[in-house]
Amino acid sequence: GESISRGSLLLKQGTIIRPPEVGVLASVGCAQVKVVRRPTVAILITGEELVDVGQPLTAGKIYDSNTYSVAAQVRYAGGIPKILGVAKDNEGSLVASLRRGLDADMVVTTGGVSMGDYDIVKEVLAREGEMVFWSVRMKPGKPLAVGRIKGAKKDILHIGLPGNPVSVMVTFELFARPALLKMMGKSDLSRPAIEAVLEETVINEGARRFYARAILEKHNGRYFARLTGAQGSGILTSMTAANGLVIVPEDRPRVEKGDVVQVMLLDWSKEC
Predict the structure, then answer these.
(1) How far from 45 is each of 71, 75, 92, 138, 195, CA to CA, in Å?
(2) Helix (H) or strand (E) holding 93
(3) Is cis: bond before 140, omega within 30 of 0?
(4) Are 90 and 120 in contact (CB under 8 A)?
(5) How far apart, in whole angstroms, are the C-alpha atoms of residue 113 and residue 125?
(6) How many CA atoms lie within 13 A of 131 on its CB side?
(7) DSSP 198-255
(8) pTM for the whole structure
(9) What is the four-CA torsion angle of 139, 143, 148, 150, rounded to 10 degrees?
(10) How many other CB atoms are found less than 10 A from the CB of residue 272?
(11) For 225, which of 128, 157, 167, 214 could close a Cys bridge (C-beta 3.0–4.6 Å)?
């Protein structure tokens, strides 16, 4: 009775089962407890130019990194990835591949959502489900599509990420990850953000909210942020160097060195 008394609440609904919760449940003789299952995420990549890792790289081809970065992000968020492979840049291949993922809880696609090739996804969504919205005023990652696909038993959330590797990872963080966490019954859906002093001037062209990859460090009790280098949406190494994203509002064309900015944390470290 010293730990918990008869009739009192042991663990409320929505509690994450960590090692202490496992021990507390065992201490009162509870052998099983109902939990929310991990959602399955079907991952489909589009692009005629993509080659799987381990295969010969011929002229005009690039290795497919999106499959593996998205699958790792799904696992990191607590979901279960279901890799559907790479679909060709035509409607028939896309539809056939999507239908192999209709037993999942979410479908994530990459590519096929920019101005030039968006009609492929639009036609597919119109027939296989519906599109909720397309295009977000942000960079990287403006060409983002969100909709529903009709599954065998239920509608499935579809998130159409852009094709460029950095855009894929950033939009997954901002849109797919919170959706996954909500599916798992969690209420804290956002990455933590802190204030930091900017160590360099950042230009924000295009009146979009800019998520700049940055290195965040703490010195003398204050946080400081500097960019990882060039911010092109195809420079995937900029993500490996970053532990945060500097958020530049869409109404600010530039932020100056020494300005205080919001930084969304991607990883915890001794410095942060």
Answers:
(1) 11, 17, 14, 22, 36
(2) helix 91-99
(3) yes
(4) yes
(5) 12
(6) 17
(7) ESS-EE-TTSSEEEEEEEEEEETTEEEEEE-S---TT-THHHHH-SEEEEE-TT-SEE
(8) 0.90
(9) -140
(10) 17
(11) 214
